[in-house]
Amino acid sequence: MTVVLDASALLAYLKAEPGGDLVDGVLAESVISSVNWAEVIQKSIAASVNVDGMLDDLEALGLVVEPFTPEDGEMAGRLWEQTRQAGLSLGDRACLSLGLRLGVNVLTADHAWTALNLSLDMQVIRT
Q1: Strand order in the sheet with 122-124
Q2: Where is the PIN domain (predicted)?
Q3: Fewest CB within 10 angstroms: 13, 36, 41, 119, which?
Q4: Residue ranges per domain, the chain?
């Protein structure tokens, strides 16, 4: 995998929002945390989207859903102190934890992440 997707990035792709084209270009090489996958499902259901088969369709395009490990949980908990001023949620920190564990770039639609001082390459998908 070459990139970790935040839920916001995958949702931008699914909803054909600005920045979704960037996600489309890397989807075949993307991974998402199971925590962020849960966010995508929840937000899709809230928008009255039928999620039956959604995972199969995205996996066919190359997306991998990575389990949230105990190590990811510890890292997400530790990131709270460093990210709380930016208001990052547990889901945000789960995404960052996966990016740190895998050592790959993270894509998000959340501009607040750019202010973080993490040893991780992050790209905001829209201006």
Answers
A1: 64-66, 30-33, 3-5, 105-108, 122-124
A2: 3-113
A3: 119
A4: 18-124
